[in-house]
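Q: Hi! First time doing this. I have a protein sequence and I read that you can turn it into a structure. Is that right? Here it is:
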Amino acid sequence: MYHGEGIRSLAVMPILSDSVCLGILLVGWRREGAISQESLQMLQDLAEHLGVALRNANLAAALKAAK
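A: Yes, that's right. Below is the predicted 3D structure, encoded as structure tokens:
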């Protein structure tokens, strides 16, 4: 998987909003075993923030469409 790009380690985090998956955050490294617990926590935090941002954007678009 992704070996053509030189990717040796891969992390995939769901981007959730109200328990609904809006997408995924996929990050690859070119070194095998390069994923630390700190990196995983940072990616999880980022995915959570993306979920909130996407939910807010969807709510703003719905409000705009309702006017």
